[in-house]
Amino acid sequence: MISRQIKINKLKGSEKVLMPTYASRELNKEVPKYEMPEGEMLPKTAYNIVHDELMLDGNSRLNLATFVTTWMEPEARQLMSETFDKNMIDKDEYPQTAELEMRCVNMLSRLYNAPKEGDACGCSTIGSSEAAMLGGMALKWKWRERMKKKKKPTNKPNMVMGIDVQVCWEKFARYWDVEPRFVPMDGTRYTINAKEVLKLIDENTIGVVVIMGTTFTGQYEPVEEINDALEKLNKKTGWEVPIHVDGASGGFVAPFIQPNLKWDFRLKWVKSINASGHKYGLVYPGVGWIIWRDWEELPEDLIFKVNYLGGEMPTFALNFSRPGNQIVAQYYNFLRLGKDGYRRIIQSAQDTALYLSGKIAKMGPFELLTDGSDIPVFAFKIKGKHNFSVFDISEMVRDRGWLVPAYTLPENDEDVAVLRIVVKEGFSRDMADLLIGDLERILKHFADEPSHKPKKIKKQGKFIKHC
Prior knowledge:
- The protein is α/β, with parallel strands linked by helices.
- Helix content is 36%, strand content 14%.
- It folds into 2 domains: 2-57, no CATH class; 68-467, Aspartate Aminotransferase, domain 2 (3-Layer(aba) Sandwich).
- Strand 4 (158-162), helix 6 (167-175) and strand 5 form a beta-alpha-beta unit.
- Helix 3 (74-82) packs antiparallel against helix 10, helix 4 packs parallel to helix 10 and helix 5 crosses helix 6.
- It starts with a helix and ends in a 20-residue tail after the last helix.
């Protein structure tokens, strides 16, 4: 923040102001960029200024880097615009929004095969990052309870996870003073497995994070395999090391197109699951969900009761005030699409991902790390030596409006640089063909420029995270 302020202070006079063109009919003076104007301006003028600057942003529909939803039906957009002003935390004032939230929680609980009937345990969040924090906190509190009963110290908790976790898990470990124990990548193994996980577990392990759809490669991690290994370990040692499933992406994919895959509450040691409604849940950002196996897995100490909004209510989310429109949109999708609708949309996305990855694999210089057969996400690298790198490819497709991220893999595979494509609703087979055409033209460009040197990127820190 300090460096940013220094940069602003060094700007020249003309760089510190906005100089709107056609809006100048209403304006007779410059508009400051970094200070509030002294006076007012017409609504249309302010709109034009902001609207014009936002045109410099990328086209979200061509953003193949982001996992978040970039298209919704007009009816959903209308419902969202009608409910921006509803504060979802104020359940006394907006009881029906609260009711829709609990309907969504119950629908997800049943979708994830929670074992008990009755009220489901969970809540909405701003996104999966908040949901992950809540899941991690519950694991730590439950572990602490178990250790206190055994009269053992509780000052050295640890959590086991892959080096491929999203950065929110590193934040959780730092914020809540939990030692993160990372399973590194190894050659062509880009995810964790039971063998590597067991090496890092001890009686101070509050839980294992297993990802359903990693950010780096789009793969599912083997939840059932790790659950079975924990069953043997816990039985042998008397420990109760649980699993939290990070289903930020896969939580809205696997139930619909891989229904026989066991990764959810059908497995004994899966205690909580987070999912992102704003990813394959098909809602604009940001909304996430945390679902616990049952109420026993949510420690009472994490539930607060407040009465200053008009009536006493429990709350166990980290955030407080936020708009209820994402919850409304999520319920709209559940109602509108049902299981068949979600299945059709997710399957279509996966079909397009498999089609596109298959085409890219045949293009010559590219080699797939994954093909999109788990979640509709795949990663590929350049095989052999060429006069271009993945960073050149990423930069050149941007000239056509495509956003395709290039990055290096984490520890142990840091020399592997890849491109990743996320296929979502709104990215059609026709758009895939357009991207293929652009990639072919780029490859021809480099073939015609043999003296070109491949662009490299300097690695920063221990490893690079990408969202």
